[in-house]
Structures are given as C-alpha cells and as structure tokens.
Design brief:
The structure is a homodimer.
Chain A lengths: L4 H8 L2 H5 L2 H9 L2 E4 L4 E4 L7 E7 L2 E5 L6 E6 L4 E2 L1 H6 L6 E4 L4 E6 H10 L1 H27 L2 H15 L5 E3 L4 H7 L4 H11 L4 E4 L2 E4 L2 H9 L15 H14 L10
Helix pairs in contact in A: 3-5, 5-6, 6-11, 7-9, 7-10, 8-9
The structure holds a DNA duplex.
DNA sequence: CGCTCGGTTGACCTAACTCAACTTGTGTGG
DNA sequence: CCACACAAGTTGAGTTAGGTCAACCGAGCG
C-alpha cells in the first residue's frame, strides 16, 4: 500500500507537496497511502476527528452535512482537491461527511505528520495557507450564492459554470445525478426538474444528463442580475500561479470563474 | 501613526503575531498602523484587492455582500479577529465588504510584509494556517446553519450562542441593532420581530436590546433538532440527552465506518 | 415479465417575504 | 419648550417561492 516510485513522482506534483522541502516530503510520504476506493466511502465523518488528510487524485468527492435524507450536499470536489484540510490542521472534528465516489483514487497523509512538517517547513506551511485561503473563498462564495440568489438563478449560474468549464461547448454533461445536483443547489429534485423546464424559453434543452445551451447569453442575463456575487475583478494575469490556484478552487466548489461575466 | 512601545506589547499578544519570530515581528510591525476609526469605515471593499490585513482590536466589524440595500450580512466579527485574511494571503479581491463600527480600533499590517514574513517564518505561517482553518470552519458552519435550519431555529440557536458567550447569564445584550441581526440570520426585520414573539412561549423575553432567557433548556430543544451543525462543545446547560441523541442518530443512520459498503 | 429507481408532472401547502399602517423613542429646529 | 421629522421596531394582511405528497413514466435488470 505504500507509495512506489511512480506514485512519488505523481504525488510530488500536488500543489501542497510541490512546495514541501525534500525533508518534509519524505516525512509526509513515509506513511502516506494511495488507494483506489471501490465503493462509496466516507473519507471523513461529520463530528469525528479524522486522523489523516485525504487528497482526491481521481474521481470525485461530495461534502455532505446532516442526517442522510435530510442532509445537504455542500460541495462536489474535483481531483487535486484536499478534503477538509482545515479540520486536519486543527486536529478538530470534521464539519461534514466526505463521500468519495466509487472508483475514486485518494492519497492519504497522516495528519500528525502534516502538522509536524508544517511547523518547520515554511514553504509547506505557506502552501497550506494558500490552499486554505482558496477553500475559504470557495465556501464564502457558496454562502453568498445561497443567500443572495434564488433557485432559478443558482441553476442558471451553475449551468453557465459547467458551460465555461467544458470549454464553452454548447452541449455539456452534468457531472452528477440530478438528485445530488439538486441537493448541491439547495433545492428539491422536483424543483430542479421544474427549474430546467422554466429555463427552456432561455434556450436550455435537457436530455438525460446532457444539457444543451442554445443561447448562453440569455442565461447569463438571468444569472447576472445579481452577479456581484462572483464579480470580483478578473484574476490578475501578472500572477499566473495564484490565478491557477484560484481557478482550481473555483472548479472544486462548482461556482463560476468570471472570465468576463459580461454577456 | 506608527506603533509605540505600549502598542507593540499589546499587539504582540495577538495569536498571529505571538507565534512570529522576533525578526518577522519587527518586519510586520514596521509599517503597521493602529488606529481608531471614528465613523463607519470599510476595511475591505467587495471586489477590490486590499493592500493590507486588518485585525480588529476593539469594537466590531460586519462582513456584508451584495449591493447596499439588497446586501446580506454574512458575519459579525469580534475583537481579535482577522478581517478577510484569506484574501490577503492570496492577494486576491475581497469577497465581501468589511464595515468597521464607529469607535472600533483596528491594526493594519501591509499584506506584502505578511506574505513575505510567512514565507520564511514557519511558526507564523502555521499560525496563519490555524487562523484560516478557524475562519473556514466558521463559514462552513454558517453555510450549514443556513441550509439545514429554518429561521426560528437559527434565531433560537443564535440566542443560545450569545447566552453561552456571555457566560450563561440569563440576561443577554444583543450585540447589534435588530435590523442587522435579522440580516445576519438571513431573515427580514419583520420576520425577526415575529420570531421573537413566537419564542415567548419558550421563555424568551425581549426588551429593546436586552433579552432574557427564562428557560434556555426549552430553547435548546428547539435548536437541538439538528445541533450537529455547530459541534463546538456541548451547551453549558448540561443536556444529558445530547450524547444519546447523537449516538442514536448515528446508529439509526447506520453510519458506516470509513470502510463502508453501500448496500 | 414485473420490479425498482431516477426523474417528471400536477395539486396543494406553508414558511417566509412584501407592503402598508402604526408605535415609540430620538433628535432638531423654531 | 413644543412641534416635527425620522428612524427602529412592531403588527397585520396578502403574496409567493419553494417544499411536500402522490401519481406517473421510462429505463435497466433480475
């Protein structure tokens, strides 16, 4: 289960571990594990301290809170995201349950090793700060999204995000079952269905998991009504590294990167 | 405007700066400023990069988002909080506008100095990570609070939180005007008023800004319906049911151990 | 086949918002 | 000193976004 040389090379490229010194990299990977999960697996359990940090290498992870059934999906993570890094840094109970989708690949690093290494390796500690800052921004955006938009606007916005993420193709594929998409957007499956229906006049065609946006501009008009939510100045081109990091984080949380934002 | 010796001693006690080495402490405080703001002042502006980190020493700060009028209050910060540390770490546009209340006292540290110092001072960088982790947890809790509780539950819970924070005294003082409290709780002022009214049967008496909780236990029953939301320490009022409830909940849900098998 | 499961559609319900009137406390100018 | 305006808060009546419940449909599958 331990990391072989090929794994080490792969893993070294992660933003977090890339920053680490040779020493702390060795320390961190000594007891790290890289494994493919076969079935739906909980990486953290709400309310329980997780002994290690998970990093999603492949597949996807859903952050959920609350009892199953009444629970809410707070985010869908994409590969290269850390999973509840904050809880590991604080060695505190996780605030959400993190479900890894079947066939995901996850790197697991002992939390104690991480905290220890971070205390002596400034580059690592700083990389952690940057990662945490990205996570923080993501959740703040999610909160704003929830508080100042209605369900239709959230849906429209989500579709535009996917649109952009899938390189502006007019056909896009929903990355999850509609049921969990609804939960992510803070609405019921029934309402999501109705939502799609009422977006039809705006050029949205739905066929199973694939959605066609005939007139993205019209959609943008709806979402842009209060897009002060994502409308912070475009990312500074002079800082490509930061921009990348931010973009990754955005993707991870399923909220839009305002490349331009003007329809 | 620069810091005098007394200021330096005070400021050295901050969690962030306490961790810093003598070197980076000097570096950080060289261009730092400690000032009392006289009127309502924006420490950060939504969408604009803030050149420096603000730390609230005295008074209070409200984090708002959205156009004035239609905006939402996302948080009320207490003294010793950092203000949008994440944005400063990333040197990215702030996600919210941070209003300092009149007569607040704010320490201002150049962001560039902070980032520079953090890159070489592991203790400082780690302290920043811990602070960010705390902020992250706070926002996640806010999001959960918003998503899985109704307005009444949020209000009840808020009152209990204040209750606890003010050392369990039966009389507590609201830290802000009801108007902004309503916005913080994600409801309208009218509805907040009605909310207080409907909590009267649970022993809540309101007289202007002071609230008396006659029977905190009853309130807790209402809020506890899903109190896994804020897992920070059990409520002072020892609720023997709590642990049981939680256990039952997990059991009932058949919450799998990490090596879960989905049926 | 017939079963379940994900999704859709329709009828209904309710929590929360809106709007408007009214109260009360707090200045402020004559 | 009063008159007045003004803001914060409360109360009431009507509206609506979104949730709930139940029936229904089509696809995968034992």
């Amino acid at each position: 289960m331990s990391l072989d040389t090929a794994d080490l090379i792969r893993v070294r490229k992660l933003p977090l571990l890339d920053a680490a010194s040779a020493d702390s990299f060795a320390q961190l990977t000594r007891d790290a594990v890289l494994q493919s999960v076969s079935r739906r697996t909980a990486l953290t359990l709400e309310g329980e301290v997780s002994p290690s940090l998970s990093i999603l290498m492949e597949g996807s992870v859903a952050l959920e809170s609350g009892r199953d059934g009444q629970g809410a999906t707070l985010a869908l993570l994409e590969p290269l995201s850390t999973v509840m890094l904050a809880s590991v840094v604080l060695d505190a109970p996780a605030l959400v349950t993190a479900w890894a989708a079947p066939r995901s690949e996850v790197l697991t690093i002992p939390g104690a090793a991480l905290r220890l290494a971070a205390r002596t390796d400034p580059a690592l500690a700083f990389a952690i700060s940057e990662e945490l800052s990205g996570c923080y921004s993501g959740v703040v955006r999610a909160l704003k999204n929830q508080r100042l938009r209605g369900t239709l606007e959230r849906l429209a916005n989500y579709l535009l995000t996917q649109h952009r993420r899938q390189n502006g193709a007019t056909r896009l594929t929903l990355p999850s079952r509609k049921r969990v998409l609804a939960s992510l957007l803070g609405m019921t499956p029934e309402n999501l269905s109705r939502g799609f229906a009422s977006l039809a006049p705006l050029g949205v065609e739905v066929d199973g998991p694939i959605v066609t946006l005939r007139r993205p501009g019209d959609l943008a008009l709806l979402a842009a009504a209060d897009s002060s939510i994502d409308n912070h100045a475009p990312f500074d081109a002079a800082r490509p590294g930061q921009a990348d990091r931010e973009r990754r984080r955005f993707k991870a949380l399923d909220f839009p990167v305002p490349e331009d934002a003007r329809p």
